[in-house]
Specification:
It contains 7 helices and no strands. By secondary structure, it is mainly α. It has one domain (3-114). α3 (37-47) packs antiparallel against α7 (97-110) and α4 crosses α7.
C-alpha cells in the first residue's frame, strides 16, 4: 500500500467525523507498520481489546466473512459503491470501526466489482 492509495481511498469514503476518526487511526497504524495493512489491522485489534491469535490473518478472515455476506443476492442488490459497502459492513461486522475501515480498504483494493465474480 502506498500513501497515495490511502489518500485516494480516504477521498472516496466521505467526511463524517466517525469515518475521519477511523481513517486517522488506520493511517497512524499504517505508518507504524510501514504501510503493511495486515500488521496495522492486528495493531488496531489489539488496541481495541479484540482477540488476535498468533499466525492468524485477522484481516483475511474479516475480508472473507465480509465478501461472503456482501455477495449474498439479497445483500448484493443493496450496494453499488464504497459508501454503501461501508454502511453494510459497519452493521454486519462486530469489530471496532477502525477495523471495519481497514477491512473496507482491503475490499476496495481487491476491487468491489471483482468481489462477487465467483458467486
Amino acid at each position: 500500500m502506498t500513501p497515495e492509495e490511502f489518500e485516494h481511498f480516504r477521498s472516496q469514503l466521505g467526511d463524517t467525523p466517525e469515518v475521519q476518526e477511523s481513517l486517522d487511526i488506520l493511517e497512524s497504524n499504517l505508518k507504524k507498520c510501514n504501510m503493511d495493512l495486515e500488521k496495522a489491522a492486528k495493531l488496531i485489534a489489539v488496541k481495541a481489546g479484540e482477540p488476535v491469535l498468533m499466525g492468524d490473518s485477522l484481516l483475511e478472515e474479516l475480508v472473507e466473512k465480509s465478501r461472503t455476506h456482501l455477495c449474498k443476492p439479497e445483500v448484493r442488490k443493496e450496494w453499488s459503491d464504497l459508501k454503501d459497502v461501508f454502511d453494510i459492513l459497519k452493521e454486519f461486522l462486530p469489530t471496532p470501526l477502525p477495523l471495519v475501515v481497514t477491512c473496507l480498504f482491503k475490499l476496495w483494493n481487491i476491487g468491489l466489482r471483482n468481489l462477487c465474480k465467483d458467486e
